[in-house]
Design a protein that fits this description.
Radius of gyration: 26 Å
Number of helices: 8
CATH architecture of the largest domain: Roll
Largest sheet: 10 strands, antiparallel
Number of strands: 28
Number of domains: 3
Helix content: 10-25%
Strand content: 35-45%
Structural class: alpha+beta
């Protein structure tokens, strides 16, 4: 009797346990052909929105993906970027599913205290084997010349590093640091806006503003706030799932004029699924710009119309899948791949002067809390010497504590 019960438990366990193996994405295979080859309905692909379909086209040949199996289902986990993967579930009882999910990772915490013996960058590399950390330290003190550090000067760093399966999946992020140049101390702290500031809230970056010049692409809405940036993995507030956001959202009141970011010809004008009313403009350099969720188009514009940079083409609305009035602005390169507009759109510059940003109000108070929290940490770091993250063969990450264990 006991043997029968034990056999039943073992069989039940085996039927629910997932057995995993790794496969390679073959060259020339599209996502649709992948579904067909694995006996999964292609209708699942056509239920996806345009952004998700565009993202699936980014799966690279040779990419490793995981196949998990048990008695009732097969799960395919296919990485698209370092942060996002597509999960395809093939159920033997039907109801196959496709969804985009973030790829889990772990965050290592590293810390370093060293005294310069030869040169600061060589000494730091010897301690961590991380060229990326050297670049990040330079970026956190942009207005200082770190090469002025001499023998006896100090470097103190608190940083984090994302790791998955023992490998680095991003550059390190410096949270706080302290260096000395000719025995003078300089502190740097990472604020929520992604920039570095000293203890008083002054940014370690000098912005030089020159005479008024129009960039290739201008902001399509004046004085608008960016409510959502370009990302491959954003949790959608309406759809309640992870999906790509291949553009920039500008929050604005309904009816706010929308301007052509650059001169070009209108190649699409009308309703486009979740984007609602939208216009697509093709520019002379082969790039395209997309303006979505419009309330209405400007009269007189149609497919084939040529518009100059700054021309009003429509007005802000909330058509399509939208939580409120805003403009979704997208940019695409010559191959039709979505690119981050933040890298190409620049505000017009005015007279020449140097600006040093200072944090104020709520942002300044948050920075001060961080400054106070790290005071004790810097004192302890001088005594312990830190817990640096070593990079082995350029990719594997281990900390001294892990090494000992």
């Amino acid at each position: 009797m006991r043997k029968s019960i034990l056999s039943f438990i073992i069989i039940s366990t085996l039927s629910t346990t997932l057995f995993a193996k790794t496969n390679h994405w073959k060259k020339g295979i599209s996502f649709l052909s992948f579904l067909r080859n694995n006996g999964i309905s292609q209708k699942l692909y056509y239920t996806l929105d345009a952004d998700d379909k565009e993202l699936l086209a980014e799966i690279r040949a040779g990419q490793n993906y995981t196949i998990k199996k048990n008695k009732n289902k097969i799960i395919f986990l296919i990485p698209i970027t370092d942060e996002l993967q597509v999960e395809v579930i093939k159920n033997k009882k039907g109801k196959d599913k496709i969804s985009l999910k973030p790829i889990p990772f772990e965050t290592l915490k590293g810390s370093i205290h060293l005294k310069v013996k030869n040169s600061w960058n060589k000494d730091l590399y010897k301690k961590t084997h991380s060229k990326a950390l050297i670049r990040k330290l330079k970026a956190s003190y942009q207005s200082l010349n770190l090469n002025k550090m001499k023998k006896g000067d100090e470097i103190n760093i608190f940083y984090t590093q994302k790791r998955r399966d023992g490998k680095a999946i991003s550059s390190p992020t410096i949270e706080a640091s302290m260096i000395t140049i000719n025995k003078v101390k300089y502190y740097s702290y990472l604020a929520e806006d992604g920039s570095y500031y000293d203890s008083t809230g002054k940014e370690y970056k000098k912005q030089i503003v020159i005479k008024k010049v129009r960039s290739t692409f201008m902001r399509p809405i004046n004085h608008a706030v960016v409510s959502s940036g370009f990302t491959y993995s954003r949790y959608h507030p309406i759809l309640h799932r992870y999906r790509a956001h291949l553009g920039v959202d500008y929050a604005a009141c309904s009816g706010t004029p929308i301007k052509a970011s650059a001169s070009g010809k209108i190649i699409k004008r009308g309703w486009r699924g979740g984007y609602g009313r939208c216009i697509t403009i093709k520019h002379s350099n082969g790039m395209k710009s997309l303006y979505a969720h419009m309330s209405r188009f400007r009269k007189g514009l149609h497919i084939g119309s040529y518009v100059k940079q700054g021309t009003i083409i429509g007005y802000v609305g909330s058509t399509g899948v939208s939580t409120g009035p805003h403009l979704h602005f997208g940019l695409y390169n010559k191959r039709g791949k979505a690119i981050n507009p933040a890298r190409y759109v620049h505000a017009c510059k005015t007279q020449k002067r140097t600006i040093v940003k200072r944090l104020k109000g709520k942002e300044y108070r948050k920075l001060r809390k961080k400054v106070i929290a790290y005071r004790k940490k810097f004192r302890r770091l001088n005594k312990t010497g830190g817990n640096p993250i070593y990079v082995k063969n350029g990719i594997y990450l281990i900390t001294p504590k892990e090494k000992k264990s």
